[in-house]
Amino acid sequence: MASVHESLYFNPMLTNGVVHANVFGVRDWVTPHKMALLVLLSELGRAGSQLGLLERRRLNRLLLPLLQGPDMALSRLRKAIEECCPHLAGSVHIRLKLMAEGELKDMEQFFDDLSDSFSGTEPEVHKTSVVGLFLRHMILAYNKLSFSQVYKLYTSLQQYFQKDEKKNGADENEMELTNPEELDGKMEKEELDGPLREEEIACSGPLSQKQAEYFLSQQASLLKNDETKALAPASLQKELNNLLKFNPDFAEAHYLSYLNSLRVQDVFSSTHSLLHYFDRLILTGAESKSNGDEGYGRSLRYAALNLAALHCRFGHYQQAELALQEAIRIAQESNDHVCLQHCLSWLYILEQKIFDSCVLLEHSVNKSLHFGLPYLASLGIQSLVQQRAFAGKAANKLMDALKDSDLLHWKHSLSELIDISIAQKTAIWRLYGRSTMALQQAQTLLSMNSLEAVNVGVQQNNTESFAVVLCHLAELHAEQGYFAAASEILKHLKERFPPNSQHAQLWMLFDQKIQFERAMNDGRYHIADSLVAGITALNSIEGVYRKAIVLKAQNQMSEAHKLLQKLLIHCQKIKNTEMVISVLLSIAELYWRSSCHTIALPVLLQALALAREYSLQYLASETVLNLAFSQLILGIPEQALNILHMAIEPVLAHGAVLDKGCAMFLVAKCQVASAASYTPQKKIEALESAILNLNEAKTYFAKVDCKEQLRDVLYFQARLFHTLGKTQERNKCAMLFRQLHQELPAHGVPLINAFK
């Protein structure tokens, strides 16, 4: 039985000079670092009223992290005290020196004197306070030590102090050899390393029970809310392995190891840690708990549920379904409605991979509201909204549903779901092509979540919703030609979400897409082609589509057509309507370039029908512009002008700068083509109006550095100025055209056969 009891706590042993008085029932032990804290508390009590109010406040704020945190070197502890009260730091150092350089009886006397803190009518420390509990734990742990353990503690204290003295001596010698400028730089660097950094976890021995619990809860909270402030995956796993080495049955350490493995997408380690967590949970809870709502049965069903979620995350849907069936069976046997509702939510996610069905989700939302599970109900509503957005439901109905979800969030103070809801609204407005509304929602979330450093749990700056909104914001700025602002946003994203974090793929994809668009606008197709591989690795559909765009720009029409046809079939199969429409528009452009204008019309009409059916207003407007261009090519510019007025307003209001330029360029082309049948006076007015539209188009193209389109506009303007007899303006446009024409390669495609 002794071995069983010892396994529940940390193994009693001496490691690197740390005495472990881990008797059953005592979850803490005395270390040299904790003795230094005891000296600090003793000197703090002696100082009394001599300390100023500001110094006492600083020390009080410092004490709690010191008592809860891991052991640290004496130099770091002394530096932390000096920042709060230099006089007290000197007193602590002198007291420790006297004890370390004195005799064993001095340490004995010190612990005897600690009990006096609780004596008297007005004691210095209350027994039930945080400091009082710490003192009592240390006194109890010290009294449990044998004589040999007391002697080992005394020698470890001497080593602890001597190590600090040697370090101070080495620092003094280095100061003599270092010039003042280098010394100032080094001191500034050291000052940046605060005394309570999360990275400084490594200590001379294993953590105590309380230190381990504090460390685990802190790291788990950081992984959820602010992953960048948590330890790096390798460092955290090293610390967890150290914890499990001394206590293999520490269930919480296995669960944190599972979360840490998820960060790096390690399916084997994450599965291994998750199973170990529930194994340990059952071993420690089965003896005292029944097989009802708590204990063995509860651990089994939630183990199966978590295993299903893990397999689903890694795309192992068959294994996830088997684990979920097991969780449902055990939950039904135990009559656990809460677990069943979670199972129902995951069942919907798995069913969604096979076919679209709202029945399970609607049932899950109703049941969650019935059993008082607002978090689950809200997630169900938002999933339902997302599915109906892809199904083409009206935006006002979706926003009404999200408003009902927001009422649940505010009522139950679900701050994380408030952020998710706003990010969802941003994405929906982007889907419908309303960039102004998307920008407004993004700014709303950014104003709610300050970019300044905040305490964990107060504001969640590094969650997925925050990453999604910032990515949309970067893309919106890039579309409007503000590439410097987009780069700043992406730079901030890289700082907030390093490459090894779980949400880093979001900004990686957007960064690659923005670079691709810039390279295409600038005519650097070889650079755009090199970016396709990176986009494909993050999103295969986007990568294939952009590969086809590059092939089309390089006049490899047959290869581009084959690729687009395969992509079209795949997107129709998975019901990715947005990409289906984009692919149809690209196929229509291939037909134009191949002089098959009549074949392009049915393709465009199919795209227009889909865009209107699914309420994709911006894609519908873009399709109408392509139809107008087809009519221009077929020789009916008047009809093209009529439908242009219907589609150009949404493009100018919500479109990208490049699309605005293409739209104005098309209007000018239609005006010139229509002017052929006008009277001379009316023809001059039409041509002058076309020149004004070309100037506007030229401004848009210059904003995104689209040199090929600028060359075409300048050529068109030069021809119009020549027709109007404006020689000076014609020569200026001709000169600018020649400069761009020499810089850019000519592909031999007629000017009239390209809309974009």
Automatic annotation (TrEMBL):
Keywords tagged on the record: Cell cycle, Cell division, Cytoplasm, Cytoskeleton, Mitosis, Nucleus, Phosphoprotein, Repeat, TPR repeat, Ubl conjugation pathway
Anaphase-promoting complex subunit domain sequence ranges: 254-353
SMART domains (UniProt xref): TPR
InterPro entries: Apc5, Apc5_dom, Apc5_N, TPR-like_helical_dom_sf, TPR_rpt
Pathway: Protein modification; protein ubiquitination
Gene3D superfamilies: Tetratricopeptide repeat domain (1.25.40.10)
Places the protein is found: Cytoplasm, Cytoskeleton, Spindle; Nucleus
Keyword Ribosomal protein listed: no
Residue stretches making up the Anaphase-promoting complex subunit 5 N-terminal domain: 30-167
Entry-linked Pfam families: ANAPC5, Apc5_N
Coiled coil (UniProt feature): none
Top-rank taxon, per record: Eukaryota
Annotated GO biological process: anaphase-promoting complex-dependent catabolic process; cell division; positive regulation of mitotic metaphase/anaphase transition; protein K11-linked ubiquitination
Gene Ontology CC terms, in alphabetical order: anaphase-promoting complex; spindle
Similarity comment text for this entry: Belongs to the APC5 family.
PANTHER family associated with the record: ANAPHASE-PROMOTING COMPLEX SUBUNIT 5
Role of this protein: Component of the anaphase promoting complex/cyclosome (APC/C), a cell cycle-regulated E3 ubiquitin ligase that controls progression through mitosis and the G1 phase of the cell cycle. The APC/C complex acts by mediating ubiquitination and subsequent degradation of target proteins: it mainly mediates the formation of 'Lys-11'-linked polyubiquitin chains and, to a lower extent, the formation of 'Lys-48'- and 'Lys-63'-linked polyubiquitin chains. The APC/C complex catalyzes assembly of branched 'Lys-11'-/'Lys-48'-linked branched ubiquitin chains on target proteins.
Protein name: Anaphase-promoting complex subunit 5
UniProt organism field: Falcunculus frontatus
